[in-house]
Amino acid sequence: MSIDVGARLRRVRLIYGLSQRELARRAGVTNGLISLIEQNRVSPSVGSLKKVLDGVPMSLAEFFTINVDEAPQIFYGDDELVEIGSDDVSLRLVAAQRPARQLTILRERYAPGAATGDDALSHRGEEGGVVVRGRIELTVGGTTRVLGPGEAYYFSSTIPHRFRNVGREPCEIISASAPPTF
Question: Quick check: 169 pLDDT over 70?
Fold first, then answer.
């Protein structure tokens, strides 16, 4: 089976919203080379193709395995967020089905008195978030603070941490962590 490298490069470039000129600038090659590859007028060496793909950035393996017929989903409706929490602590995951997702984005909702558990959590990576409404008590290591609407946090997830709603109303947080934890 022969792969049309030129057509595939064009589709990848368009999926990532790059012009030939922008891809060439990022990759450190001429836009003429990008054009010739896309028209299949030149067959790039593995090294040349790798250099071009560094401008995306994308590995050779990703280039040959990505589904170029279907662009990744960009926008998500409320009904497309996947629930991975419980009744008291709702964790709604954005882009749950996205392949090779590099980030966890959550819409979190804590009922009054709800917490992430009796034991502190810890995992690889970093996380941060913004309180949208309500109040949340956040303990990171030996430091505890109650955050309200508009206040934010960011910390290394390797430090044991725990969330608890200390208010009388539900608390909502929009958070992100990397690498993905869910």
Answer: yes
